Amino acid sequence: MTNTERGPGSRLRRFAERTFEPQTLERVIFPALADVEFECAGDGRASRLVRWRAYWGLLKAIALCLLTDWSRNGRPLAEGVATRMTVIFPIVIAVVMVPALNAAYAKPLVPGPFLLMSLAQAFVFALPIAFFFAVALERHLRSPRQLLPAVFAMALACTLLTMTVTLSVVPRANQAYRQAAYERLKAPADPALDSSGSGELTFTELVRRGRSGTPERERSAARHALGMRLATSTLPIVLGFLALGIAGYPWTHSLFLGMWVLMFYVAGLRAAAVSPFQGPSVRGIWVVNAVFVLVGLSMVWSRPSAADAEPKGYIIS
After folding, report:
1. Domain span at 192
2. Domains: count for the chain
3. In angstroms, how far is the first alpha carbon of the chain from the final one?
């Protein structure tokens, strides 16, 4: 091991060499590293503040370069994912809504409210699936590690949208259908409908019922329903990391791997969330989500960058 490899800033140097392009290293990172090495060459308490300033300058340079790379790499990725989602999302919605359309007009239901309820639930299912395949079909030439921040930002946006629909739109759609069905089937002397199940409560109503002085069974049901909805809302983050792990392969391989990954993920959720004694387990869903996030990150980190696969003299970072 040379002195440079174990000298001041050696760990930051190795991190930078694995992360940034050669032009960024030569123009920004290496000059800041040279300042650190020069300032740390002297001894004495008088130079401690100077050394801290040198390290602070190096950390600021690395942070600014990371932000610049993330924004430069994230923009084309976001545009590509958004374009593919505009194609994939309506297809998934249409496939999911086929049984609902058949049930609405083949059975004595209330077609309008029933389709409204089904559409809201189909949106929660279709958005993570569309995001998963939109990322899995990415053909970006850069290292998957450089795309992690952009994928996480898009997954977080999809998660917030899914959470809004799950905690607000879906309960109101369920309320509308239940009220319409009750008004259609009730007798003239029946009282008005004044109670709601856990599937018809919004976020604020679930929190209020979980904290109120209602019977313990209702408080427990409200807390369980809230936990299940929050766990469901994190699907875009889990699927985004898994999709990035298989992105970059030929599109036929990506589709094949994507179907298998989804099958294993759904099987893991079903096995962990369903208990024959206690019913659906929120903790089991969170555990499975955490495990598959780690699987996706390991797939991303184990993939070589495009620059490693290219011949010498042609650099793609």
Report:
1. 72-309
2. 1
3. 26
